[in-house]
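User: Show me a protein chain along with its predicted structure.
Assistant: Here is one chain, sequence first, then structure tokens.
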Amino acid sequence: MIRGLLLIAALGTATATDDAKTLAKALAGRTPGKPEMCVSPSRVGTPQIIGDRVLLYRDGGRVWRNDLPEACSGLDDDAIVVTEVFGGQLCRNDQFYTLERTGGSIPGPRCRLGNFVPWDKPR
């Protein structure tokens, strides 16, 4: 029983390390700006999922980092993020859910967005 728990813990660490590397690569050479509550969904594309707590949206040369207030268990490499947009903008506390790319039609748990932090390359 203990061996199984250690294996699970080791796998969790490898995933967290991979997520940290992916995040560092995506934000390399950029500095964070002032957090904003909302962004225009017409300017940002589909988010890049980093672990179960971070979404990255791209807007031209800018990357918007969104740290979720709580972990979202439905986020993984196979997830499609479906966001409910009210008032024409993606905003902090807006809800989203996930669908699996491999034919899953049952929505995952509802999760909430956090603030949007712009990351830009220095001029």
